[in-house]
Design a protein that fits this description.
Layout: H1 2-22, H2 27-54, H3 62-65, H4 67-83, H5 89-112, H6 121-144, H7 149-181, H8 188-211, H9 214-243, H10 250-271, H11 277-305, H12 312-322, H13 325-340, H14 346-366
Helix pairs in contact: 1-2, 2-4, 4-5, 5-6, 6-7, 6-8, 7-8, 7-9, 7-10, 7-11, 8-9, 9-10, 10-11, 10-13, 11-12, 11-13, 13-14
The structure holds protoporphyrin IX containing FE.
Protoporphyrin IX containing FE is lined by residues 27-28, 31-32, 35-36, 39-40, 74-75, 78, 89, 92-93, 96, 139, 153, 156-157, 160-161, 164-165, 281.
Length: 370
């Protein structure tokens, strides 16, 4: 299932980059192709992998493992509704809302039944899903309060990008980078426990501020910076050598952290009218999401392709996907920052890095059966 979700995400990213060059679609169409069709189901797929690890419990049942498919259907429906200018996004929001609420119930049950105290990352996942649920509720509210549509759209997009994706990403990175490097971060659990309030509070303030009262958004950005700066410092102390390496997942994963910080700062400049909405969204997708997804995929895809005992094949597959990870991370980051500052040429850097990764993915799949 997770392999299918990675491939769908890769195809949806490529489609989101290529489609606007071929057809003049509304921006909401290609944004949802990348985020609702590609990222949303993939995040749930990744959580299905991590929740049993974090709660030391059995793998998820078939019913739970099918939830990402339901979200994929909702994402595809949302994409087509924007591409065809229909209103079926209300149905899409309802389907995704039911799926997300069912999933949150599953995580809560696992947390309660956990052997020992569950890892704090689990509460970040619950926070992330709560943000998605609120974001989808904001879409439903558009039908009730059409005069508040613009404010609700802003609420929806910030809850989704900084809350749903941001909380999941920043929590998962703190588990994934030490695993990729092969050396633990002893403070990760305690830090996640202390920092959730800042990240969640920051997300809510930014979302409400963007929708109704801008000063709240600046305060929210400051709150979000507390966990980000603390994580950045820890990583530079513990993993600087690995982060500088040009091969492997560490450089991509740390570029994702830098990309998230950049996207937050770009958001503040956008709130001041200095940067455009589209440029800020591009910086979020290219400088943060692309290094995140490619770095996490390099680390996780081998386990998802062949679950069970780790063999030499897994190490080779990771090496193959991680090859040139540092170069890709630099291209994604630089491309995202340039595009964020309004320089369109930056897109070429990101397209080059994405094409390189898709080729690496295809070459791994070609030998996956060996
Ligand atoms: C099935 C799930 C979803 C539905 C039904 C949905 C629905 C909507 C709707 C109705 C709008 C307003 C469009 C407009 O007025 O132009 C919107 C905007 C937006 N949504 Fe979603 N959404 C979904 C999932 C997501 C996810 C998962 C993300 C990000 C992680 C996301 C990010 C955005 C963004 C960035 C915008 C602003 C687009 C623009 O300004 O053109 N959405 N969404």
């Amino acid at each position: 299932m997770q392999v299918l979700l990675v491939l769908t995400a890769a195809a949806s990213f490529a489609g989101a980059v290529a489609l606007p060059l071929l057809y003049p679609l509304p921006s909401a169409a290609h944004i949802h192709l990348a985020l609702a069709v590609g990222v949303m189901p993939l995040i749930f797929g990744a959580m299905i992998h991590f929740v049993p690890v974090l709660t030391r419990s059995a793998i998820a049942s078939l019913g739970v493992r099918l939830i990402p498919l339901l979200l994929l259907i909702a994402g595809v429906l949302a994409f087509f509704s924007f591409a065809a200018s229909s209103q079926s996004y209300y149905l899409a929001a309802f389907i995704a809302l039911v799926a997300a609420a069912t999933f949150a119930t599953w995580i809560t049950r696992r947390a309660v039944g956990s052997i020992g105290k569950p890892h704090s990352c689990l509460y970040w996942y619950l926070g992330a899903i709560a943000c998605l649920i609120l974001a989808l509720a904001a879409v439903s509210a558009m039908a009730l309060w059409p005069e508040q549509r613009l404010a609700l759209k802003r609420l929806h997009l910030h809850l989704n990008t900084l809350g749903f994706i941001g909380l999941t990403a920043i929590a998962t990175l703190q588990v994934l980078l030490p695993t990729a490097v092969g050396r633990p971060d002893p403070q990760a659990g305690a830090r996640l426990h202390l920092d959730l309030k800042w990240a969640l509070g920051g997300t809510l303030l930014i979302s409400l501020g963007a929708a109704w009262f801008r000063p709240l958004a600046y305060l929210g950005t400051l709150l979000w910076m507390i966990p980000l700066v603390s994580l950045g410092n820890t990583w530079l102390t513990l993993y600087f050598r690995e982060i500088r390496q040009l091969n492997g997942a560490a450089s991509s994963l740390s570029a994702a952290l830098a990309g998230f910080v950049a996207a937050l700062l770009f958001g503040s400049l956008h709130a001041n009218g200095i940067l455009s909405t589209t440029d800020t969204a591009h910086a979020f997708i290219l400088a943060f999401l692309f290094p995140l997804v490619t770095g996490a995929t390099s680390q996780l895809l081998p386990i998802w392709a062949r679950p069970g005992m780790q063999t030499a094949w897994h190490a080779q597959a990771r090496q193959r996907l991680g090859a040139g990870g540092g170069y890709r991370a630099m291209l994604f980051f630089a491309g995202g920052i340039m595009l964020g500052l309004g320089w369109r040429g930056g897109l070429a850097l990101s397209i080059a890095a994405l094409a390189a990764f898709l080729l690496q993915l295809a070459s791994l799949l070609a030998v996956a059966h060996e």
